[in-house]
Amino acid sequence: MPRARETTLELDLVALEHNYNYIRTKIHTSTMFLAVVKAFGYGSDSVIIAKKLEKLGVDYLAVAYAHEGKVLREAGIKTPILVLHAQPCNYSMVIKYCLEPSLYSPRVLREFIKASKAQKQKSYPVHLKFNTGLNRLGFWENDIDSIAEELEGRDELKIKSIFSHLAASEDKSEEEFSKNQIRSFDKIAKEFTSKLRISPFMHILNTSGIFNYPEAQFQMVRSGIGLYGYGNEARYDDKLRPVATLKTIISQIHNIEPNESVGYNRAFSAEEYKKTATLPLGHADGIGRQYGNGKASVIVNGKEAPIIGNVCMDMIMIDITGIECKEGDEVVVFGKGHSAETFAAGANTISYELLSGISQRVKRIITGT
Ligand SMILES: *Cc1c(COP(=O)(O)O)cnc(C)c1O
Predict the structure, then answer these.
(1) How many CA within 13 A on the CB side of residue 183?
(2) Shared-domain flag, residues 184 and 46
(3) Does 262 lie in the same domain as 205?
(4) DSSP assignment letter at 88
(5) From the CB of 355, is ligand 1 less than 6 Å away?
(6) Is the pTM of this model over 0.85?
(7) Does the Cβ of 223 fall within 6 Å of ligand 1?
(8) pLDDT above 90 for 97
(9) What is the average pLDDT score of the chain?
(10) What is the mean pLDDT of residues 182-195?
(11) In Å, what is the CA distance from 117 to each residue of 66, 95, 136, 329?
């Protein structure tokens, strides 16, 4: 890779392939693999990521909203796409682009039946989501009778799968809670199958679920963060490789005298002589103000340089006192060699938020094709 000359997000498709293959080793060969590519592929590039995964033989893709699925279809993606949170106003788009909606309440079930009737659909594939404790989206166990009534004698829909989502799969101290969710999902599935006399496939595990509860993989697993190189736990982070590396350069270097300040609201104040560098990225690129004032560091020629003062919309200042560097030198914000998880943790957040927040202004560069 030639060194960066502007702010870029490098996407390493060899790392993606490695992560996919690694996660695959954690499940049976017969278990289907759904790759979550919502939010621009966790802030990377959903089309590039989806195309690579399609080539690798992924069984399913998932996005959050209908528009995200439309983008994939328009790019030529043929793999089935589960839409986790499509809004009823977009159901005609869902059908037009052969997307498979998650239906999670009596209201949206009725709405989707209406939409598929209007478009004269037969056996349109849908997935029913059940709530087992996350209390976010999902039918409740006692909705099963009304689902059965609603679907009685209809042929517009085909329920391909039923699924649920774990609330704390990465948290060992919540093992009992997670196991209870898995048990209640199992119970719901049995009741559902016997009432509706159909056997859709089942799935409940996300990335940390795959690592911690492989016995509950059922017929499919859904992985997002692991594919992008983070495992919510050091021992899995070690086995995975970051796909995205955010790089920038030093625009200008200043020598700051004691008692001078740096940036808006004079938030950084120099107690001694300091050397600072100004970088061409800011909160409009997805590095929010929470990373300012020493909460996160970037890497300059192999050395850690803390962000000082307030993060601006298009710029960040860092302390490079004692670091050998010059204007134009490359800076690694996070990624290879500088974990997004660590960067995020400094500001009390998680890799998911940092990655998915990298804005569309940042140029994407693909490596390892
Ligand atoms: C985002 C999401 C996932 C992926 O979770 P990871 O922790 O990133 O693997 C899986 N299932 C659902 C329902 C999701 O919303």
Answers:
(1) 6
(2) yes
(3) no
(4) G
(5) no
(6) yes
(7) yes
(8) yes
(9) 97
(10) 97
(11) 19, 11, 28, 60
